[in-house]
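Late entry, written up from scratch paper. The run itself happened at the end of the previous shift, but nothing got recorded in the book at the time, so transcribing now.
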Amino acid sequence: MMMIKCIIIDDEPLAIDVIESFLKEFKNVQVVGTFKDPIEALSILEQGGVDAIFLDINLPRMNGLEFLKSLQEYPQAIITTAYKEYALESYELEVLDYLVKPISFNRFLKSINKLTARLIAIKKHEPSIDLIQPAHVFLKVDKKLVKILLSDILYIESLKDYIRVSTLEDTFLSHKSLSSISEELPSENFIRIHKSYTIAIDKVKSVEGNLIEVGDKRIPIGRNYAAHAKQRILKNKSNLLK
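Output as recorded:
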């Protein structure tokens, strides 16, 4: 399992406590330092080995964004702030995510999934003999976080305020919207074909009219999704035959 080492920089002790409590839910994430002043974090960043910074903006002595600008290079940065107006400037600095306080756990989970995907993608391009962790997402299921490999997902069904994720071996029910989970999945592997369904393109067995067979289920293609969905699915199948 890829271990993710991170630090938290925030001048509010309560904010640090909230982020730390969220991070404790992830067995592969380790908090290696918490700081109220960004200057105090310089030494640990210079040592290397930090994968991510959870960074507030309004800080003593130096604005969080100014702090990033002062660094020649820095780990993946996730902004945690009460202010929305710095979002554009933050993304110009190529931060990974921008979380507005108060931060819900569901929104935080999305950020961790994004962080994991980014670090795995970086790892794939590094020359290394280490095993690369398969792409995955974490979903909150029955009060615990469950890791689901993307390669195991067949389809995802919307059930009002919940989603049901069907995999090769099991199904999982999670309090999350279909739109939210679909945004976290790589678009080259998954496609939304109906207001209630997102499917794994490589798991499609057959297409008959406006029905798609995935696993043991026949799923309808929504009228508004039909043209794009069929083009993507049939193109994918034809590429596999080349």
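The chain has a mean pLDDT of 89.
(Scratch paper discarded after transcription.)
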